[in-house]
Design a protein that fits this description.
The protein has 96 residues and is mainly alpha-helical. It has three helices and two strands, in the order H-H-E-E-H.
């Protein structure tokens, strides 16, 4: 076992790459919606949300917004008011 393997083992669960995973999930959702709602463009904004109550989040230069779940409501309100999420689509998603 090399040093890197030892440190990975000692670290336990790793976060992996949350930015890559969030972007991949957003792409999966885009493809799903494109199949279910052809011709309708729905803006998708990935966000990384940490749910551990003791987590301290410092996202820095993250390409995808990352925040603690306690700040999610404020982030959504601020982002929605800025208009960056685009217009709200008038569609019925219950058939999806």
């Amino acid at each position: 076992m090399g040093w890197q393997s030892l440190f990975l083992w000692l670290a336990g669960d790793s976060l992996g790459n949350p930015s890559r995973e969030a972007a991949g999930e957003a792409d999966t959702l885009r493809r799903y919606l494109a199949k279910k709602l052809p011709g309708v463009e729905i803006p998708i904004q990935p966000v990384i949300v940490f749910g551990n109550t003791t987590a301290e989040v410092e996202a820095g230069d993250s390409p995808i917004p990352a925040l603690h779940f306690k700040k999610l409501k404020d982030w959504l309100a601020r982002t929605g008011k800025s208009g960056s999420l685009g217009p709200k689509p008038a569609i019925n998603l219950s058939s999806c």
